[in-house]
Amino acid sequence: MENPSSVMIAIAWCLAWGDEQKPKFDLTVLQKMRQALKDGKNVPEEVQTLVRQVQELQDLPFPNRVEELKQYTDKYPHLWDSQIGLVYGGATKIKQYVFEAAKLPDIRGASALLDRINLVDLPAFFSCENHPDYEQCQRAKNYCKEIREEWLDKAENFPELSKALIPELVIYSTGGNILAFCPTAFINDLADAIEKRYTEETLTANSCAVGAEFKLLEINFGLLPNEIDDDTFWLDKYIKNLENPLIKAYFEQPDTSPEQAFRERKRFNELAGRLASLFNQRRNGNSLPKIDRPLHRYPPMFETHPYLKRDEGDRRSAVMQAKTSPDDSTQGLPGDPWFSEASARKRLVGQIAKRDNSSTKWYENTGFKWQPGGKEAVESWVHKFERFLYKTPNKYYSNININEVEEARSVRDIGDASNPKGFVAYIYADGNNMGGYIQKEIQNPEQYKLFSKDIFFATEISVYTALMEHLIEPHKLSPILQAERNSEKEVWIHPFEILTIGGDDVMLIVPADKALAIAKTIGEEFEKILLQKRGEYKSNKTYEPLVVHRYQGGKQAISDNQCKLSMSTGVLITAEDTPIYYAEKLTNQLLKSAKKGAKELKKYGYYGGTVDFLVMKSVTMISSNISEFRSNGLTKYGTRQQKIKLYAAPYTLHELGGLLETAKALKDAEFPRSQLYQIRSLLERGKQTAILNYRYFRVRLSDKKAQDLLKTQFEDAWCKPKENNNNGNLAPWMSLKEGKEEIEEKVTYETIWRDLVDLYPFIGKAQNNSSLTKSQQQTLPS
Asked: What is the CA radius of gyration of the chain?
């Protein structure tokens, strides 16, 4: 076989292994075959026929008629009769497990433990420490061997499984899920091993895994019936039944011919869809037809009692207290917290992930036998960020000793780096158009593997790039927080927390004043990296910037170099003492709003990212949810039932950049804050009243430069009327662009003024920021 891909090696391995738990050929023959395929050499004579079958599968063109498909089954009976296993699984209800506790150390520990299982433990089943694509497994090589020898191969677990698994079988293992081939005899064992690993390591996290057998021909041509005859549903019958609503919903794609839509659907992604359906059925507790496995085994339920002490999450009975003993023989934790075993594991993993030098004797003296895996296996995202800085030219560390920079231990540490202090921002970003792209573009397992690798790489690097670019340098903690660490010298920290980077989604905590700039750069870099990776990600769609973007100032948006994939982001700016679980819920709502905005703009050819944000200065600001808050509190109806929105979110990335520039312009002009708030308060009185008040405010500005700045950066950039020949002035309002919303000549008016006022405290002066030297920046209030 010339230049075999890893997927072809995986298929050849499964064929050579056979349908039984004992391999059809001697294991040494299979290993020689695998190595020969990797090196491009001749395979052992015993398996040459099997390897030729894999080559035949790779070269088969798509059959347009059912007769052609039937000819394949007759001409290549080995491809029709041979079976291969495919397993899909991972964690479920992840947020329920991660945000179960209220404190950041437990949250980061829960996230790090799930990351370790997904990125190290499950690939270790396949000996991925011996494959160059799995760098973290390579760094934790001894730990990976221990997983197989001391857990997977134990008699009470799955003693024969590890011999049947090789790294090439893994299609992807990112984003909290794994998809992998395996010999058919081990489908149930591998699925059970995935579920059992999550449960034994976390005790309380939900997980699910399923598997199924597929014919080799199905890898190329999607799901097929057991027999191919004249009545088989194929392209010709699909064309005749285009109006059938079920068939239409299953196959139809926008801007795609019926023939092309059918070919794109009948590919490997149809197998992945079948596994996803089985996954949902099993996760919901249903038995699966023709699958001999027990029902979904949920994690253990730990009973509580009203008169027993509970752990800090108030979910389970506490079994120990991390308290310093009177003779100092056992060192505890600050606050002497109570733990159940599940919460103790989270805190211990959190300490290791954050390279916290505090003693772990509090755990060692509990008598628990469970071990977290060590620093090589449990690696924080901040540590990976430092590795990125090492490989990337930057000025992040400046004159600061790299070894003296620590990680943030609490949300207060991150809030200390904001200006003003005491505020943080939660960022939750997620990919757009992923499902549609997979259905339309992904045709085989190799493309699945490359796609997963590209998305994970782009997501991770875009986050690191944004943090490096906007945080500029580590932050020196204030004396109060320094004293809390019992440190006599200066303490420098990385002023952010990466809760998770999984597949195409990201959760961060950053200083409030840098949040929107970081969110914007993440979205831009994500698209930029993918476009640089492969030409397949470039879209041939264009859009009209004047229709999509409300901001018409500064550098004009480019509409002819779009990426097919993008990111939507929710950003919540709030006080550092806001409960994390509450902040996470609101940020998730903002993300959904941003994704909804991106979906609407896609109708006009825009495939780029969107951002929705909210500045919440008190926990009691929102009593229900953000959508109701905006509908009931920030939406008014003027004369003739004109709809008036006192907000303009969500924003495209181009609009967000314009919003930040406008806010900096206001800061530069040193507008009296009282006047800014007065204009905001008069917005609720209707369109005309707000326009008159704004005009009065602007003409009374004593500084002519301030007037010109406001006209250029706000009025001309945002508030021009829809009609090109209309020279009127709508400021501070803007009407929705043509095609966005216009029913019976009723135009909706919206304004960015409220957002500008909310952002005002978190914006620095543009002119000063651009001229500051490095030494000056270090002396500014952080």
From this structure: 29
Q: Cα–Cα distance between 568 and 613 in angstroms, integer?
A: 11
Q: Which residues contact 487 (CB under 8 A, 6 or more apart)?
A: none
Angle, alpha carbons 755-759-762 (nearest 5°): 175
Sheet holding 492-494, edge to edge: 405-407, 492-494, 475-476
**In DSSP terms, which residues pair with 563 in a beta bridge?**
538
Question: SS3 for 758?
Answer: helix
Strands 734-735 and 749-750, bridge-based pairing: antiparallel
Look-up of token digits 């825009």: 606
Alpha helices by DSSP H, listed for 577-625, are: 580-602
Task: Provide the 8-state DSSP code for 711.
Answer: I
Rounded Cα distance, 777 and 782, in Å = 9
Burial label, 683 (beta-carbon count in 10 A; 0-12, 13-18, 19+): buried
Question: What phi, psi does 243 have (nearest 5°)?
Answer: -85, -10
pLDDT < 50 regions, the chain: 737-744, 767-782
**Separation of alpha carbons 352 and 376, rounded Å:** 10
Say if residues 587 and 685 touch (Cβ distance below 8 Å): no
Alpha helices in 232-380 (DSSP H): 235-240, 245-251, 258-265, 268-283, 341-353, 361-364, 374-377
Backbone angles phi, psi at 331, to 5 degrees: -90, 130
Q: Is 35 helix (H, G, I), strand (E, B) or coil?
A: helix
Tell me 401's DSSP state: -
Tokens, residue 125: 């089943």
Q: What is the DSSP letter of 712?
A: I
| Residue 605 · residue 541 · CB < 8 Å | yes
Q: Report pLDDT for 513.
A: 93
CA distance 349 to 116: 10
Query: What pLDDT score does 564 carry?
Result: 92
> What φ, ψ does residue 24 adopt, rounded to 5°?
-70, -35
pLDDT at 470: 94
The per-residue pLDDT for 739 is 43
3-state SS, one letter per residue, for 104-124 = HHHHHHHHHHHHHHHHHHHHH
Cβ atoms 615, 761 nearer than 8 A: no
Q: Which residues pair with 179 in a beta bridge?
A: 88, 172
Distances (CA, A) of 472 to 43, 396, 507, 769: 54, 6, 20, 12
User: What span, in angstroms and rounded, lies between the C-alpha atoms of 713 and 735?
Assistant: 17
Q: Facing residues of 508 across strands?
A: 427, 498
If residue 210 lies in a helix (H) or strand (E), which one and from where to where?
strand 206-215
State the Cα–Cα distance between residues 297 and 250, nearest whole angstrom: 32
Chain CA centroid to CA 626, Å: 22
Instruction: Identify the pLDDT of residue 455.
Output: 94
Q: Report pLDDT for 328.
A: 59
| Distance separating alpha carbons of residues 200 and 142, to the nearest angstrom | 20
Distances (CA, A) of 352 to 116, 337, 347: 12, 18, 9
Q: How far apart are CA 733 and CA 690, in angstroms?
A: 8
Question: Does residue 199 sit in helix, strand or coil?
Answer: helix
User: Which is nearest to 213 in space by CA: 201, 205, 223, 198?
Assistant: 223
Residue 298 in tokens: 């949920």
| Integer angstrom CA distances of residue 44 from 19, 323, 742 | 20, 62, 70
The two structure tokens encoding residue 161: 């499984």
Contacts with 313 (C-beta within 8 Å, 6 or more apart), sequence order: 100, 101, 102, 106, 343
Helix (H) or strand (E) segment spanning residue 633: helix 626-633
Contact (CB, 8 A) for 341 and 203: yes
Determine the pLDDT at residue 738. 44
% helix, strand, coil for the chain, step of 5: 50, 15, 35
pLDDT value of position 720: 80
Q: Which of 226, 223, 157 is nearest to 194 (CA)?
A: 157
pLDDT for the residue 271? 93
